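Budget justification aside, the reviewers requested a transparent look at the raw inputs and outputs of the sequence design task funded under Objective 1. We therefore reproduce one unedited record. The lines immediately below are the structure tokens for a 375-residue chain.
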């Protein structure tokens, strides 16, 4: 999803963020030094098992909870260097928060609930606030319910009203904690479609969710496991592995960087890693005895190469180079760890073998083409 309001300043930046809880049962490390950057205008889902730390991560961004260590920076402001009263006012102007259980005040109408954040931070003229609240309720399809109490409308409508309230002060960032957790499928679709609209208008949305189907509609998915972030490239490449297995791979990655046009592997070279592309494009090519080069295929970010060699002879069947246009950043998984993962996950092994067969066929077709149609 491309955003026309993109900026060089990250919408959200987390630097070595830690959260430690201590009680009579002992010390619990809920967040273990998280590093994370979210760009302006991204629609990001945060997923993880119960107790993984995803809601704590969101509470760090909103300033509701405090880190034990590290920095949380939202639109250039270090959230936790402010005192509580200053942070509350800053939050009211810069963050819209959507809760799973709506948190609407039951004695106020939907319109009055939406006006509350404007009153709190004293934004917009007093006489203008009812009009703006009505505009926001119209945006979420609730103009006819504006003067009703929350208990007299459906749960889906209550959540839409909560989103209107989150938009009351026109904040650049929306943080949503399980916003569809108590909604049926139809109501959930309305909420996500509304989020899509907000992102297109320039908002940044960070959404904690337990629903895998919702992640397909966000521009990015961040996976947290046991208080640590799983490498996003690894998570996309191995969709059938458990979070525990993905975190194990994350711990065993090595980083590689190549200049535009630089050789990564040469034909018949020993291959020791499965390489996953983080940024840039990679060209797979062959050369005939006369030196003519033929590109077999080009690979993009989140794709990988080296699986043929690691499951076969161990020597490269083609030349691999960084594309001429941009540098390439890779992460590598060593042979032993890659084969260990295949042995522990039959469905992953089958998926890799399907890729191997497809790429071997691409290679054979390219060789035939170079040889004038001869095998």
């Amino acid at each position: 999803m491309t955003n026309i309001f993109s900026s060089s300043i990250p919408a959200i930046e987390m630097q070595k963020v830690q959260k430690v809880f201590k009680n009579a049962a002992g010390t619990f490390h809920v967040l273990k030094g998280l590093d994370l950057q979210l760009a302006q205008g991204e629609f990001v889902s945060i997923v993880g098992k119960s107790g993984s730390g995803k809601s704590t991560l969101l509470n760090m961004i909103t300033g509701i909870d405090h880190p034990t260590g590290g920095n949380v920076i939202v639109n250039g402001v270090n959230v936790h260097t402010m005192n509580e009263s200053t942070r509350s006012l800053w939050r009211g102007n810069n963050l819209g928060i959507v809760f799973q259980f709506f948190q609407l005040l039951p004695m106020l109408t939907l319109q009055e609930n939406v006006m509350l954040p404007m009153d709190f931070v004293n934004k917009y003229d007093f006489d203008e606030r009812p009009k703006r609240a009505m505009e926001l309720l119209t945006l979420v399809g609730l103009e006819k319910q504006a003067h009703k109490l929350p208990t007299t409308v459906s749960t889906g409508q209550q959540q839409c009203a909560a989103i209107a309230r989150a938009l009351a002060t026109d904040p650049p960032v929306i943080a949503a904690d399980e916003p569809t957790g108590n909604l049926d499928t139809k109501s959930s679709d309305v909420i996500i479609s509304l989020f899509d609209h907000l992102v297109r208008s320039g908002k940044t949305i960070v959404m904690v969710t337990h629903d895998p189907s919702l992640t397909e509609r966000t521009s990015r998915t961040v996976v947290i496991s046991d208080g640590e972030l799983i490498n996003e490239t690894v998570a996309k490449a191995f969709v059938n592995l458990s979070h525990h297995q993905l975190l194990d791979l994350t711990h065993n990655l090595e980083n590689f960087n190549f200049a535009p046009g630089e050789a990564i592997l040469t034909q018949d070279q020993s291959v020791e890693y499965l390489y996953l592309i983080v940024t840039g494009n990679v060209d797979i090519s062959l050369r005939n005895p006369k030196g003519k080069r033929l590109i077999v295929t080009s690979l993009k970010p989140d794709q990988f190469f080296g699986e043929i060699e690691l499951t076969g002879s161990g020597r490269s069947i083609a030349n691999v180079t960084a594309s001429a246009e941009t540098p390439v950043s890779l992460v590598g998984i060593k042979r032993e760890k890659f084969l260990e993962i295949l042995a522990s996950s039959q469905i992953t092994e089958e998926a890799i073998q399907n890729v191997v067969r497809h790429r071997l066929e691409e290679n054979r077709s390219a060789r035939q083409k170079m040889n004038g149609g001869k095998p």
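The chain has twelve helices and 18 strands. The domain at 248-370 is CATH 2.60.120.10 (Jelly Rolls). Computational costs for records of this kind are itemized in the attached budget.
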